[in-house]
Amino acid sequence: MQINRLFQTKEVTLSFEVFPPKTDAGLESVLKATHKIAELHPDFMSVTYGAGGGTSRSTAKIAADLQETYGTTVLAHLTCVTATKAKVAEMVDNYRELGIQNIMALRGDLPRDGVRGEDYRYAAELIRDIKKRAPELCIGGACYPEGHVECARPSEDLDHLKAKVEAGCDFLTTQMFFDNNILYNFLYKLEKKGIHVPVCAGIMPITNAKQVARSVALSGSTIPQRFRTMVDRFGDDPGSMRQAGVIYATEQIVDLIANGVGHIHVYSMNKPEVAAGIQRSLSEILGVGK
Ligand SMILES: Cc1cc2nc3c(=O)[nH]c(=O)nc-3n(C[C@H](O)[C@H](O)[C@H](O)COP(=O)(O)OP(=O)(O)OC[C@H]3O[C@@H](n4cnc5c(N)ncnc54)[C@H](O)[C@@H]3O)c2cc1C
Fold first, then answer.
1. Which of 49, 91, 99, 102 is the most interior residue, by most CB within 10 Å?
2. Pocket residues for ligand 1 (CB within 6 Å)?
3. Strand partners, 202
4. In Å, how far from its chain's centre is CA 130?
5. Virtual CA dihedral for 231, 236, 242, 245, nearest 10 degrees?
6. Atom of ligand 1 lying closest to residue 106 CA
7. 99 pLDDT exceeds 90?
8. Do 126 and 107 form a contact (C-beta atoms < 8 A)?
């Protein structure tokens, strides 16, 4: 199913994200985890894509496997920072042949060695190419409630986002955020800017203390005091931290849905127990607006 259609027909949706293994040797255990998540019957599952392109075959394999085995609606990611136009065309054709109807089109994080490809600078260029090659596909793009880390001014980031949406984004998914007010302010700014595509709120359950530093460094997300206190108190006890992280994420989701933000994407990171914990706590709420 196309995700933009899904958003038109359902007021509240819950989706989960998984990522491919770094090497083929890890594929089996990742597939096992993705199967457990698919058995929860989320509205869709996204499969990330390594910016260097190294995991590209696994992304397609995992997405196709979920679709075939569970009938899951999948969103396969594609990045362009090191890709050539030929590679993008090959990947889009491959996704289409596999029956994948949704692509999350991204620039990708800049490679550590600084060597990027010459064909693409920004995600908007990738989106334009996908739309031209496969106009029937539904395309998602990333957005950043606190501004993208490389962009000095959030207002400029919004200008770039508007251009990206006009290039052909059917919906947006946000970077993680830990304070819902940041999202509400961002949604207001989108409205004023004339960006009207559906926005899926990206929620990252932080279930171990190490994840905090890593996630914040990558995303630049603000960490509220309430969150810091939780990590300070439970960070050294893995069981308590996992439970507290799931509860924090679930509370964020309840508040979002209560305030009319119905499309929730959980960065579940190949952790079925985290996905299941969140879904279980929302079982009645997920039926809202059916
Ligand atoms: C929901 C989500 C899913 C993700 N999945 C993946 C994944 O699967 N694999 C992966 O490697 N990474 C993934 N990422 C990370 C993402 O690749 C990085 O955040 C990356 O740094 C930016 O990608 P983008 O597509 O948002 O880039 P862009 O939209 O191209 O923006 C990148 C930067 O360029 C600026 N910019 C855009 N257009 C212009 C312009 N015309 N002139 C000047 N500046 C401009 C923007 O303001 C921004 O600072 C994901 C992020 C999110 C939020």
1. 49
2. 48-49, 51, 77, 79, 104, 106-109, 122-124, 142, 148, 150-151, 157, 160, 164, 173, 175, 202
3. 265
4. 19
5. 0
6. 25
7. yes
8. yes
Domain count across the chain: 1
Owning domain of residue 166: 3-284
Q: Which residue is closest in CA terms to ligand 1's atom 12? A: 108
Q: Are 206 and 244 in contact (CB under 8 A)?
A: no
Residue 37 lies in a domain: yes
Phi and psi for 75 in degrees, rounded to 5? Answer: -125, 105
Q: Flag whether pLDDT at 289 surpasses 60.
A: no
Candidate from 206-215, 219-228, 237-246 with smallest mean pLDDT: 206-215
Tell which residue, 21, 81, 89, 86, has the closest CA to residue 57: 21
Q: How far is CA 255 from CA 23, 201, 243, 252, 270, in A?
A: 38, 12, 18, 5, 25
b/e map 128-166, b = 16+ CB within 10 Å? bbbbeebeebbbbbbbbbbbbeeeeeeeebbebbeebbe
DSSP state of 282: T
Could you tell me the CATH number of the domain that includes residue 137?
Answer: 3.20.20.220
